[in-house]
Amino acid sequence: MSWKKFYRKNKADLHVHTTASDGKYLPREVVKIAWKKGVSFLAITDHDTITGLEEAYQECRKYQVVFYPGIELSTNYENREIHLLGYNLNWTSHELQENLAQLQAARKIRVEKMVSKLSERGIPIKLEDVRKKATGQSMGRPHIALVLLELGMVKSIDEAMRLYLSPGCPAYVSRYRISPLAALKLIHKAGGMPVLAHPGIECPDELIPVLIKNGLQGIEVFHPKHTKKQEDFYAQLAQTNQLMITGGSDFHGHEEKDFFNLGEMKVPLNSIRQLKKNSCSGRL
Fold it and tell me: Which end of the chain is more exposed for a tag (fewer CB within 10 A), N or C?
């Protein structure tokens, strides 16, 4: 069976966020939304946290959706933010939880500094309002963006990022991040499979061979922000290096485009099979 024929009946989404980090919906709600869209294979990949995995797993069992416990780790490489996805993690790993606790603490400090910078510019934003948006453990820039949107300072989350919250912008503050190689090691130690997230957004091409040498197992080729040219480039790169090709919507649920993209990114059948070998939901 070709992956195209398979995918018509069995959608997959390997990059989805919940309220555990900066998504709008609870883990159980995200599972139900994905199931209604026909998603049969789902990975929850919240930013630097695994707190939503148990709830999502139980809900996936209810709807008979194959579940891949995951995470999206934010790392730093030469002042660039590189994201690594980890699939089929042992989310009870003590070492993993300790490392994530450090990252969460750094996130909170960063948000406080960014809110302070915005306030100094006369923007009436309050830290308590940002905290209310962060219903889960992981607090970050998207929560600030949501408050700016409510205040009428921007027309979209993307605009908030572009005008205020990205490198070089008035309110941007860097924070502690682990290196990409440290993230690879952490994912491997937790029994997971590391995949480079949306490399076309910020990852320099020269870093990818280094990641491969240090245990990278896949590349997220299909992502809403990738161009066709980028998809072709990263697909060829993955095939040449015998890496798994993945795809995901990067669903957060705050904007209409998120629902349009959910479950619509390509995921080859071989990748589904490879992931299922170590999943907690059986074999294909």
Answer: N
Give the C-alpha separation, 36 to 30, whole Å.
10
CATH 1.10.8 is right for the domain spanning 103-165: no
Domain 3-100+190-276 in CATH: superfamily? Answer: Metal-dependent hydrolases (3.20.20.140)
In the chain, at which residue ranges do the beta strands (DSSP E only) sit?
11-16, 39-44, 66-77, 80-87, 193-196, 218-222, 244-247
- Say how far apart CA 111 and CA 137 lie, in whole Å: 13
* C-beta of residue 90 within 8 angstroms of C-beta of residue 190: yes
Bridge partners of 86, per DSSP, are 71, 194
Q: Where exactly are the structural domains of the chain?
A: 3-100+190-276, 103-165
Q: Which two tokens stand for residue 101?
A: 């606790």
C-alpha–C-alpha distance, residues 52 and 81, integer Å: 23
Are the beta carbons of 64 and 281 closer than 8 angstroms? Answer: no
DSSP 171-222: T------B-HHHHHHHHHHTT-EEEE--HHHH--TTHHHHHHHTT--EEEEE
Tokens representing 31? 């599972």
Tell me the average confidence (pLDDT) per consecutive run of 10 residues in the chain, 284 residues long: 62 96 95 97 96 96 95 93 96 92 90 96 95 83 94 94 93 90 97 97 95 98 98 98 98 94 95 80 38
